[in-house]
């Protein structure tokens, strides 16, 4: 209950925070993009993870407001970053059903001056589960605006290769669970390599997530991934810190 009443207060106040985690080019080591990850610093309960409060926001009808907040804050931050570094934000399936999303995106881009090509939306395969056609329409509207689409957590849940045929995703993010087991597990290695080949042939960028060790990094490279993300490079950090990391260069 404290979470439910607190969430409305948090959306109006300054308890929510975006952290940013670099997505690094395997070729050259530049930061190509940063993923925005929301944090809630509750005055009494302390830090509440998004895995706990996002489902509550969805059930309370607050997910649109939350997505709007994330979108705007992420665009404000990225508009202040040097160069062409993109910002990637996570869009929950519930938000993708809202026909207001494309106009919210356009408003955030206009207000902040961020070019559409520097905004990437990460969606998961579950958006296609109970699709009545609405989600597809909204996805195509978003693509027309010129922003990028990433398929997140790929390989878990409901993977179907037909999504890759029907939508021109710019980026494929393979789920961290495949990288977690890769050093010990020949099956994970085979799957990661196959996904790397597939995505390259479809001209998609590929992000290997959850990279924590040099060995995992070597496997991502061998599988032909274009990008890597994980604690080996940086944990999610504040906007001030991400600017320092971008400016420091490879
Ligand atoms: O940062 P990790 O911290 O614990 O994120 C946990 C989960 O919460 C991930 O599945 C991530 O995609 C999701 N998440 C993080 N930030 C956001 C956000 O701003 N919006 C949505 N919808 N999900 C987010
Ligand atoms: O579902 P999504 O891929 O958006 O969520 C990303 C989640 O992974 C976030 O909770 C983020 O904090 C976490 N994360 C990012 N890098 C690493 C890593 O190297 N190791 C682990 N265990 N988690 C990571
Ligand atoms: Mn993500
Ligand atoms: Na992911």
Structure characterization notes:
- By secondary structure, the chain is of the alpha/beta class.
- The protein has a single domain, classed as EAL domain (TIM Barrel, Alpha-Beta Barrel), CATH 3.20.20.
- Helices cover 43% and strands 21% of the residues.
- The chain is built from 10 helices and 9 strands.
- It has an 8-stranded mixed barrel with strand order 1-2-4-5-6-7-8-9, surrounded by 5 helices.
- Strand 4, helix 4 and strand 5 (119-124) form a beta-alpha-beta unit.
- Helix 3 runs parallel beside helix 4 and helix 4 (101-112) runs parallel beside helix 5 (134-145).
- The longest helix has 17 residues, at 63-79.
- It is globular.
- The mean pLDDT is 93.
- The protein binds guanosine-5'-monophosphate (2 copies), manganese (II) ion and sodium ion.
- The site of one guanosine-5'-monophosphate (G) has 10 residues, from strand 2, helix 2 and strand 4.
The structure class reads: alpha/beta
Bound molecules: guanosine-5'-monophosphate, manganese (II) ion, sodium ion
CATH superfamily (homologous) name: EAL domain
Name the CATH architecture.
Alpha-Beta Barrel
Question: Strand-and-helix sequence, N→C?
Answer: HEEEHHEHEHEHEHHEHEH
Overall domain count? 1
Helix-residue proportion: 40-55%
Organism: Sphingobium xenophagum
Protein name: Diguanylate cyclase (GGDEF)-like protein
Domain EAL: 1-250
């Amino acid at each position: 209950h404290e979470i439910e009443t607190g969430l409305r207060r948090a959306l109006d106040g300054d308890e929510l925070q975006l952290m940013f985690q670099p997505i690094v080019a395997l070729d050259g080591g530049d930061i190509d993009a940063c993923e925005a990850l929301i944090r809630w610093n509750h005055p009494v309960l302390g830090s509440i993870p998004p895995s706990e409060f996002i489902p509550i926001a969805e059930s309370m009808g607050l997910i649109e407001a939350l997505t709007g907040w994330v979108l705007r804050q992420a665009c404000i931050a990225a508009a202040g970053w040097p160069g062409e570094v993109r910002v990637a934000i996570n869009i929950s399936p519930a938000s993708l059903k809202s026909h207001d999303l494309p106009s919210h995106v356009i408003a955030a881009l206009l207000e902040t001056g961020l070019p559409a090509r520097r905004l990437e939306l990460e969606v998961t395969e579950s958006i296609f589960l109970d699709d009545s056609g609405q989600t597809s329409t909204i996805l195509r509207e978003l693509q027309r605006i010129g922003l990028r689409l990433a398929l997140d957590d790929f390989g878990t849940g409901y993977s179907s290769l037909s999504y890759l045929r029907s939508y021109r995703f710019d980026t494929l993010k393979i789920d961290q669970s495949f990288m977690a087991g890769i050093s010990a597990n020949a099956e994970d290695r085979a799957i990661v390599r196959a996904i790397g080949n597939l995505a390259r042939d479809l001209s998609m960028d590929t992000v290997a997530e959850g990279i924590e060790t040099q060995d995992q990094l070597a496997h991502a490279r061998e599988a032909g991934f274009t990008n890597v993300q994980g604690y080996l490079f940086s944990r999610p950090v504040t906007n001030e810190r991400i600017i320092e990391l971008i400016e420091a260069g490879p």
